[in-house]
Amino acid sequence: MNQRTVLVTGATGYIASHVCVLLLQRGFEVIGLDNLSNSTVDVLERVREIAGRPIPFMQADVRDTRTLSEVLAGRRVEAVLHFAGLKSVSESVAQPLSYFDNNVHGTVTLLQAMSLAQVKRLIFSSSATVYGQPEVVPIQESARVSVTNPYGRSKLFVEEILADLHRSDSTWSIGVLRYFNPVGAHSSGLIGEKPKGTPNNLMPYIAEVAVGLRPYVSVFGGDYPTADGTGVRDYIHVMDLAEAHVAALEHLLGGNPGFTLNVGTGRGYSVLEVIRAYERASGRPIPHKIVARRPGDVAECFADPTAAQELLGWSARLPLDRMCADQWRWQQHKESHQQEGSAPTPRGR
Ligand code: NAD
Ligand code: WQD
């Protein structure tokens, strides 16, 4: 039995909870940490239900060096997977300091605690947002980075801090994963994304239209230079993303040097294609209206995932229809839970 222990920050969040399931299933010992600012602790019960093993959990903030040092000193942690952070582009424009504090300062305090404990393997959740307005698609890792908002800047600052750290001490091995558009949920329907308030992202918004919580999807722009005029993105199933983390972790634990890799499928879908796929998965019509472009959006953004395939032997497997089917199962599961309590109130946009 494999006894390798890893610390997962942001453990109760959307992506990390799916990664925790896979880590447990692959025999890792997982310690979870989260300040619960954007998630709830009950997700751990469902992670346990799926994986058959519990996760020791600490409610703590990554900016709390003392607690982090205690966690790292107390166990033989071999690597940290760092998901904790804030992720809304629009909120980051309104509250930039909060984003730099959580995402940049939070990462620096985590790195200080890791350094003290001599834990020097890290996987960091970066984002395709660091490519800003891409000059060419598919995007390779060597593409120019150019951020357009404080959230993106916080990710880029951290990437640069990590590069400086490695330059100063080459015993660090750091894997930076630049996620494209994570969607979907675990096939059990027990865990998934749970946005607070109005969803910012396309698929959770479509899901709320499908269940009648919102009247229609506003499609942001119908005049982009794409096949049907709507924006094109590289949607990736969250379980494929989880597989990429396990492959990245195995690579670092194997004594290999760090890396920066795109995590996408390499295939772009338009907003209308996603709406049609969700209609097929749910068997429900998704009313939608083309409205003005959303400021800051780009026409097309999709990955060249070749480097991850070559270095980690990882590539995405699950198609768009599966992303929608799993997201739909989770949406219904969430609904049935809510109906057991108070009924959801339909809201317009
Ligand atoms: P999420 O909000 O569901 O999960 C993040 C978790 O971190 C939450 O549970 C939150 O409570 C916790 N957290 C926030 N600040 C913290 C702090 N200071 N200390 C401790 N815990 C803290 O988001 P997610 O979608 O699972 O994203 C995980 C990571 O992946 C984030 O770093 C995000 O920026 C990055 N990312 C997400 C996407 C996406 O589309 N979801 C895309 C690219 C990158
Ligand atoms: C996808 C497409 C929209 C909502 C964001 C962040 C990025 C990363 C992933 C964290 C676009 C269109 C959307 C709606 C729509 N997150 N859309 N109606 O903007 O590609 O990326 O999430 O790192 O940093 O910027 O994702 O899901 O918001 O949009 O028409 O109600 O759907 O214009 O073409 P995006 P998204």
UniProtKB/TrEMBL annotation:
Residues 331-349 are annotated as: Disordered. It comes from the Bacteria. It is an enzyme of class 5 (isomerase). One of its GO terms (molecular function) is UDP-glucose 4-epimerase activity. It catalyses: UDP-alpha-D-glucose = UDP-alpha-D-galactose. Transmembrane segments: none annotated. Its cofactor is NAD(+). GO terms for biological process: galactose metabolic process. InterPro entries: NAD(P)-bd_dom, NAD(P)-bd_dom_sf, UDP_G4E. One of its GO terms (cellular component) is cytosol. Pathway: Carbohydrate metabolism; galactose metabolism. Its EC number is 5.1.3.2. Residues 7-326 form the NAD(P)-binding domain. Keywords: Carbohydrate metabolism, Isomerase, NAD. Homodimer. Belongs to the NAD(P)-dependent epimerase/dehydratase family. This is UDP-glucose 4-epimerase. It comes from Ramlibacter aurantiacus.
